[in-house]
């Protein structure tokens, strides 16, 4: 039979079904054509009575099957569309399970979602020992339930507790771990995988160890199952604070389906898939997936094709940020130089990079040998020796314009003309800084967030004279370093800090009005923010926050003025977590002990009871307004840039799809009305909607229409 997307080969009564055939994409997905073609192939195989077995494999080097096509899921308009789509996949995989001969999935490369669900329908799964071979059911991360029978078959393969862990977290497993879990029957070098499949045509009779059989026995018991589900539900609620529907729905389907047969179970799974895939939450998470995918490729202005290549790096400054940056460079094989003014400062930088690496060793993401090699690849020094070999410099010294300018002038004498120079400034003008360089075209801002190893966002800040090649090369480097870059035009607070400012400012004003700190913090946490504004200010440093607030106020005017309350705290040396006292008191390990009663005593004695929604409006309306001015000023080009920046930069709740996606869903007219009311009742300068927002609403447009 003629096939296009999937190859079919018959050899000695064994059928070899190969995915990713005639396909120029690096990742093969289960799109509509692949699903239809696989259905036809399986119908043929069902007719062949002499078949001894079927082996599913992939022609691709990095991908077995990356799951269902997300564009297909995103195109679902109704619950029944979704349920129908899931049923189609289930029917297909039932056909695999119902073949009269044994079947083996020989997995090499990425095997996710529908790819793993297909494999689970086979008699056995074997996998290559390649580091790119990864298996998992990540649907929950898109607000979905695995809909092609995954929640039915995985517990039957690995037992209930392990399958709940995999399905509810969406985590990925490498081949050896998958074997330990009982998901995979054998792990082999990729060259031998297809041949070894023939040895796995029978059900593996060997049971796991005693622990495994006890676990299986326990989960077969009705009461044990009840407890397992109860514990899983508690753990989900603790982790997600109840914001996410999908994990709870998954638990409902799996628990209710325990006594059901295949068709009854699968019909409730497809029903749940239909409900979830059109929910606003899943659409928001799908939106983030598409934004993130798009951000993986540079889409800005391109210059010549001859982009600077960053093989060797240097970090200027070995402080909080410099140590983290040196670690990032070392992790990416750039054997960086880390330069500071004193050996004591260098020691701090080494401590920082070493603790980042050790974290990886503890999580078994790195061997101790690799840690030693990479840590030793960082060269600490006080002078400029060896800077001629450096391709990328990231400056992370004190936040002072004059010092930075003089350091850049000196630096230029020590680096090659084609080296790229960047500043990690969090608030100073990159435009002004560029005037200190004789070759400003190779200079840009590269703003990492603290801590460097945890925070994915990097703002690439441009200025009038920067060359497109510099921006593009920095963008590509960030992607390679597994960061999420956003290209931002220079301006006070750049992108994230500018929009974050009202979040912290408004908290100060509310405190001064007598709203209790706990109510403010809770209102933000209940909105889905990872921490409240007072706790965040303590993390950033109240003194640092105050300096940045001043720069942003000076640059943008009274719209972003801050309450005088934080200055009062700075005067009393309450800097936040770094000196153990801020809005909260911290123990030696940096854990919150409780509110700082001295600060509480500085607040009005008469407390104001404010409705939680009102607190949220007071805080998030000025943020939306500020985001609109960011677009008006051309700081970034799209609403998606802002949402990506806030999700990856400050942990804006992903289930809301981003600040502007949230604004669009609330309705701009309503939000403008709410701002205008508060412009009258609270403060005109902070709440008057900006021209850009008014025009958008007048044109009946949303942020995502532009
Ligand atoms: N800490 C943060 O949360 C954060 C976040 C993003 C950006 N930044 C920015 O990163 C930069 C560094 O901040 P940090 O918090 O790491 O500061 P830090 O005070 O921890 O470290 C600065 C280091 O620079 C060194 N230094 C000063 N002058 C130098 C020079 N001429 N040559 C070499 N080293 C010199 C100091 O000795 C010190 O070790 C600042 O521009 C800051 O605005 C900080």
From TrEMBL:
This is enoyl-CoA hydratase. It catalyses: a (3S)-3-hydroxyacyl-CoA + NAD(+) = a 3-oxoacyl-CoA + NADH + H(+). Pfam families: 3HCDH (PF00725), 3HCDH_N (PF02737), ECH_1 (PF00378). SUPFAM superfamilies: 6-phosphogluconate dehydrogenase C-terminal domain-like (SSF48179), ClpP/crotonase (SSF52096), NAD(P)-binding Rossmann-fold domains (SSF51735). PROSITE patterns: 3HCDH. One of its GO terms (biological process) is fatty acid beta-oxidation. It comes from Halobacteriovorax marinus. Its EC number is 4.2.1.17. Pathway: Lipid metabolism; fatty acid beta-oxidation. GO terms for molecular function: enoyl-CoA hydratase activity; long-chain (3S)-3-hydroxyacyl-CoA dehydrogenase (NAD+) activity; NAD+ binding. Signal peptide: none annotated. PANTHER family: TRIFUNCTIONAL ENZYME SUBUNIT ALPHA, TRIFUNCTIONAL ENZYME SUBUNIT ALPHA, MITOCHONDRIAL. In the central section; belongs to the 3-hydroxyacyl-CoA dehydrogenase family. In the N-terminal section; belongs to the enoyl-CoA hydratase/isomerase family. Residues 493-586, 618-700 form the 3-hydroxyacyl-CoA dehydrogenase C-terminal domain. Keywords: Fatty acid metabolism, Lipid degradation, Lipid metabolism, Lyase, Multifunctional enzyme, NAD, Oxidoreductase. Residues 314-490 form the 3-hydroxyacyl-CoA dehydrogenase NAD binding domain.
